């Protein structure tokens, strides 16, 4: 097809728009000067300051724990939900189930955060749990959000899967649970990895919901970053952002290469 | 579908029951509590709202509901203007995303097949890095002594720095920047499926590329436009971080108003009422999205 100069320049502009702020962040993180427009020479001092910032380190550790726990829970729940939606056909309450699973995708975070907090407050009043807010409340809230995304990823893979494999195993007398673990899971494994990573990233990135459901003793990394950024530009955040960008870029490129070699085989 | 093959009824019940109970308990019930508290009376204490059902000596004596929270919202100009400003900002941002995202999606869809995955990957990649930190990068670009003003003054385009940070313009830039990938992905998904022979037919019949675009490509990509617009519009209405970091004092958006009402004023019933009002505005777009999603899941129209 004919290449359109207009379309290509739009594409170039779009990528520039998407990547310029990220590139600048990386440059600023090595700037010895605090002021963005003045190049004070190359320096790694903000990275060293970051490693000595105990608040950031503690928050990062909590965020990683929350993200890993909630992504795992979200993946299990999301896979069950995907199996229900793709393989179960009609059942009572399917419409409601369908609505509930997709709604968190489009619900503004601020409403989700408020709703979760009000639930925890009401629960605490009624049954005395959760006692204050912290790790477990953030995990529950993030699991609900992550589950919706994990379901989308897993269900699309499950829907493409050839059902005759499962049918053959069932006909040969395997129990459904065995069929699921021996046949279904290996086939949908890439989507499980993608779903987990998506839920993990969303949890690691969330500031709005976490602000509602975290307590005084449990500050996640985005909350910490948010409160320091509100006060103005902070070079340590540039360094942190650069680290995140590098980690994500490496992970994505590796995942992409892996999926490419799989396809070639 | 095959119901019989999942023979063990208890197993089926567990597979269905676990996610269902989770969603009811941790998604539906919280929303119902928001609705409940939005019609409760405020009080000073912990928690800062009166119970809806009144009991005396263990006996139920009555319901104590009020619409005051909603009435107060509608009477307060601040919230009315925040309501309309949120819808306007979200709407205009959606349109801008569409204008920038559509040509991008089309260019990717028309690239050689082996080039499409990396091009698409480049659109998705920023989404995987911290949203907060990317918004923060814009603070460094847009502020008075920031990069944009520095470049413009160095070029001699302006002599005084432009005030962009802490204005609505900065909020637009932030929202378009953050949500652009959500627009490009569904657009690409529909444009990629478009049968190229349709365009060839249009060309054979003498239509120029522009004409073919308006009468073939654009109408056929409406599902992608709708999906992308909803994915941008709905979260943008409730956006809190972007107006807080990039917006100014006169940028009032619902998300920020809700947080202030909740955290600063400790007026939980009014915050809940605001959430209900926000959901009411979003009910139609959300329902549209649900319909689009279920169509995507059941292309044969089983539902």
Automatic annotation (TrEMBL), chain A:
Pfam families assigned to the protein according to its UniProt record, in alphabetical order: BPD_transp_1 (PF00528)
InterPro entries for the chain: Bact_Polyamine_Transport (IPR051789), MetI-like (IPR000515), MetI-like_sf (IPR035906)
GO biological process: transmembrane transport
Principal location: membrane
Signal sequence region: none
Cellular location(s): Cell membrane
GO CC, one annotated term: plasma membrane
Domain of life: Bacteria
Residue ranges constituting the ABC transmembrane type-1 domain according to the UniProt record: 60-255
Membrane topology: Multi-pass membrane protein
Keyword terms: Cell membrane, Membrane, Transmembrane, Transmembrane helix, Transport
Membrane-spanning ranges: 5-30, 66-88, 95-123, 135-158, 179-199, 237-258
Protein family according to the UniProt entry: Belongs to the binding-protein-dependent transport system permease family. CysTW subfamily.
Protein name: ABC transporter permease subunit
From TrEMBL, chain B:
Membrane topology recorded in Swiss-Prot or TrEMBL: Multi-pass membrane protein
GO biological process, one term: transmembrane transport
Keyword Acyltransferase: no
GO cellular component, as recorded: plasma membrane
Entry-linked SUPFAM superfamilies: MetI-like
Subcellular location: Cell membrane
Pfam families: BPD_transp_1
Residues of the ABC transmembrane type-1 domain: 83-289
Entry keyword set: Cell membrane, Membrane, Transmembrane, Transmembrane helix, Transport
Domain of life: Bacteria
Regions that span the bilayer: 20-39, 82-107, 119-139, 170-191, 212-237, 268-289
PROSITE patterns listed in its UniProt record: ABC_TM1
Alphabetized PANTHER family for the sequence: INNER MEMBRANE ABC TRANSPORTER PERMEASE PROTEIN YDCU-RELATED-RELATED (PTHR42929), PUTRESCINE TRANSPORT SYSTEM PERMEASE PROTEIN POTH (PTHR42929:SF3)
Family: Belongs to the binding-protein-dependent transport system permease family. CysTW subfamily.
Protein name listed in UniProt: ABC transporter permease subunit
């Amino acid at each position: 097809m004919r290449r359109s100069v207009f379309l290509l320049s739009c594409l170039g502009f779009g990528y520039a728009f998407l990547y310029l702020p990220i590139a600048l962040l990386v440059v600023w993180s090595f700037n010895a000067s605090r002021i963005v427009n003045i190049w004070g020479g190359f320096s790694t001092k903000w990275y060293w300051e970051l490693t000595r910032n105990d608040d950031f380190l503690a928050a990062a550790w909590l965020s990683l724990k929350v993200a890993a726990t909630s992504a795992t829970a979200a993946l299990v729940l999301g896979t069950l939900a995907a199996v229900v939606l793709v393989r179960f056909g009609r059942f009572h309450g399917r419409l409601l189930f369908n609505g509930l699973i997709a709604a968190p995708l489009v619900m503004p975070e601020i409403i989700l955060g408020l709703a979760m907090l009000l639930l925890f407050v009401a629960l605490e009043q009624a049954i005395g749990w959760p006692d204050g807010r912290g790790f477990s409340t953030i995990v529950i809230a993030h699991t609900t959000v992550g589950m919706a995304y994990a379901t989308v990823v897993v269900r699309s893979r499950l829907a493409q899967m050839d059902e005759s494999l499962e049918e053959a195993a069932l006909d040969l007398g395997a129990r459904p649970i065995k069929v699921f673990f021996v046949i279904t899971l290996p086939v949908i494994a890439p989507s499980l990895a993608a779903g987990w990573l998506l839920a993990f990233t969303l949890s690691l990135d969330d500031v709005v919901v976490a602000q509602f459901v975290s307590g005084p003793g449990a500050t996640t990394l985005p909350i910490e970053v948010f409160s320091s950024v509100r006060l103005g530009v902070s070079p340590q955040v540039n360094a942190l952002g650069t680290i995140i960008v590098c980690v994500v870029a490496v992970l994505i490129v590796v995942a992409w290469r892996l999926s490419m070699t799989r396809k070639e085989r | 579908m095959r119901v019989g093959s999942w023979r063990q009824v208890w197993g089926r019940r567990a597979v269905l029951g676990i996610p269902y109970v989770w969603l009811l308990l941790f998604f539906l019930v919280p929303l119902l509590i928001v609705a409940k508290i939005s019609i409760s009376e405020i009080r000073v204490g912990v928690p800062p709202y009166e119970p809806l059902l009144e009991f005396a000596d263990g006996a139920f004596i009555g319901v104590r509901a009020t619409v005051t929270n909603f009435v107060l919202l509608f009477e307060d100009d601040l919230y009315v203007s925040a309501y309309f400003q949120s819808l306007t900002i979200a709407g205009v941002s959606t349109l801008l995303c569409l204008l920038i995202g559509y040509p991008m999606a089309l260019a990717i869809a028309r690239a050689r097949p082996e080039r499409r995955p990396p091009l698409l990957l480049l659109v998705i990649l920023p989404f995987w890095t911290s949203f907060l930190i990317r918004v923060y990068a814009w603070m460094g670009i847009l502020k008075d002594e920031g990069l944009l003003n520095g470049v413009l003054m160095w070029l001699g385009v302006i002599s005084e720095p432009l005030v962009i940070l802490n204005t609505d313009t900065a909020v637009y830039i932030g929202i378009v920047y953050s949500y652009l990938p959500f627009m490009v992905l569904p657009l690409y998904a529909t444009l990629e499926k478009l049968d190229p022979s349709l365009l060839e037919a249009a060309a054979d019949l003498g239509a120029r590329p522009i004409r073919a675009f308006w009468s073939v490509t654009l109408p056929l990509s409406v599902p992608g436009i709708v999906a992308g617009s909803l994915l941008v519009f709905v979260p943008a209405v409730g956006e809190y971080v972007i107006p807080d970091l990039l917006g100014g004092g006169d940028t009032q958006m619902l998300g920020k108003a809700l947080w202030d009402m909740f955290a600063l004023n400790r007026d939980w019933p009014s915050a809940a009422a605001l959430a209900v009002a926000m959901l009411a505005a979003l009910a139609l777009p959300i329902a549209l999205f649900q319909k689009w999603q279920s169509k995507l899941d059941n292309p044969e129209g089983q539902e």
